[in-house]
Amino acid sequence: MCQYCCTTTLGRREVLRLAAGAGLAGVGLAAGLRGAHAASGEATSLTSVEALGALKAGNSRFVDEPELCMRNLYERREQVAEHQAPWASILSCADSRVPPELIFGGLALGELFVARNAGNLADKGVVGTLEYGAAVLGSPLIVVLAHTRCGAVDAACKVVTQNANYPGLIGPMINPILPAALAVRNDAGDFVTNAAKESARRTAAGLGSLSTILSEAVNAGRIKIVAGIYDLASGEVTYLD
Ligand SMILES: [Zn+2]
User: Fold this and answer.
1) Distance 146 CA to ligand 1 centre (A)
2) Which domains does the chain carry?
């Protein structure tokens, strides 16, 4: 285990230790969620701003020092076996090249609460997952993470430009991307990248309308929802307005 791992892991343990006794009172849980078994124990004490800063620092580390730290997975597994307190939730594409724990700097077990599907889309399962992360586990940040050269977004763009058809449930799966693709169809630059950015922006902006739990948490300042795009070539995550 390298110096970075030792210092940052201890730092996070310290953060969690200091949060002991705080419970989840600050998370503003719906009453029915308070008793959830997975919520026993304390949530992270990181704010959404601190969590976003940690993700940015981790991604910079991934870009600049891609040789990731060795992790003591056995020790960490024991630490989180009874309780999790993830400090950020990530909705990312299922693409095999975009594993959130790695691209945010080689994070350990129990740090990120992750939902993935092709195109990083907010279906019911994803919205419920993000609600659980925020309301039950106390994760203060949601990142909707698109990426360059996304196959799902490319497929949606081909529906727009070529009226493409896809077998099975692939077509219905990518349908939610079509409005974003249509909106940026004539913009300068790469169509697929522009559509991926626009889709992530819309997904992030729309989570509140899909979930009262999330909108109330945002309005109360308990969580922050942001969109970003990961560059497959550079490894860099850029956050979108
Ligand atoms: Zn993708």
Assistant:
1) 7
2) 3-240 (3.40.1050.10)
